[in-house]
Amino acid sequence: MSYTEWIVEESGARLDKYLSEVSELSRTRVQDLAKEKKIFVNGKAEKSSYKVQCGDTISCDVPENEELNVQAEDIPLDILYEDDDIIVINKPKGMVVHPAPGNYSGTLVNALLYHCKDLSGINGVIRPGIVHRIDKDTTGCIVACKNDLAHNAIAKQLETKQCHREYIALVDGNIANEAGVIDAPIGRDRRDRQKMTVTPTNSKDARTHFKVKERFQHYTLLDCSLETGRTHQIRVHMKYINHPVTGDEKYGRKCAMMDTQGQCLHAYQLTLVHPSTHQKMTFTAPLPDYFETLLEKLRREDI
Predict the structure, then answer these.
(1) Where would I find the beta strands (DSSP E) of the chain?
(2) Which helix (H) or strand (E) holds 113?
(3) How far apart are CA 21 and CA 293, in angstroms?
(4) What is the pLDDT of residues 65-104, one digit of tens each?
(5) Which residues are catalytic?
(6) Exposure pattern of 159-180 as b/e (b: 16+ CB <10 Å)?
(7) d(CA 87, CA 18)
(8) Beta-carbon count within 10 A of 215 CB
């Protein structure tokens, strides 16, 4: 356990924002530590939303990184880019990003531990190196970090929207507009805790931009970009406008034409600023075979 202390010199900032600026901790990490009551202001455990005051003494008990108990596994990876700081993967359909209770093998983290050996420890033993996630049945670009400096830099870019994620989605029905923005807050579905929903209560702002890429008789192919990064955001927003992502059994229905093994959603492009060189970099993942096959079927049969 490491112990650090700071004296606030200027009032007004949220506790999580202040600590993310004066320490090596990411804002998300600060929020997690606050929930665990490991961050103290003037000797009292405070929430991450606390507004710091000039003269406040802030202390933080940061647990030492635990020895990894998640096993490295020799799982093939489709690597789009790799250096000493980051690795960008084209994640296949069906692969979970990190282990969870009851599912400790076969994940991207298991594969990364075998391939990289070293990963950032900020997210602990279950999510080493993981800065952001994509769903199990969503394919495409995801970046992982090999050290804490890179992790903090990419996490900051996600927070400040310097890191951009572009998706291709096939949705049910024919969307009327050629382009648009879905601006609707997303929170946990009270009736089903495993689902998210558009709700005005206990929610966070969420904005999804879309543009029609191709039209079919009963389906629409979209380019989607995220202005925010809420859980299941594109899937929830598409359901909200009555055009659920094709094959999404959680928020829509199973695809009748072929077994897509989940939603037809692909993270095809990721843009970030490299944490060491400060160069802007864009990575692109080609559409997976199942997606291309489905589009060819739609074009051929005019479905």
Answers:
(1) 2-7, 39-41, 44-45, 57-62, 79-82, 86-91, 139-145, 164-172, 179-183, 186-188, 196-198, 203-204, 207-215, 219-226, 265-273, 280-284
(2) helix 108-116
(3) 47
(4) 544 467 888 999 999 999 999 999 999 999 988 877 667 7
(5) 135
(6) eeeebbbbbbbbbbeebeeeee
(7) 29
(8) 13
Give the integer Cα–Cα distance in Å for 240 and 249: 15
Structure tokens at 202: 């206990």
The whole-angstrom separation of Cα 88 and Cα 36 is 31
DSSP 3-state assignment of 153? helix
**CB-count burial class (<10 Å; 0-12, 13-18, 19+) for 283:** buried
pLDDT in tens, 123-148: 655 566 788 889 999 999 999 988 88
- Write down the residue that tokens 């995801």 correspond to: 142
Q: In what order do the strands lie in the sheet with 2-7?
A: 2-7, 57-62, 39-41, 44-45
Contact call for residues 158 and 28 (beta carbons, < 8 A): no
Burial-class residue 301 by CB neighbours within 10 Å (0-12, 13-18, 19+): exposed
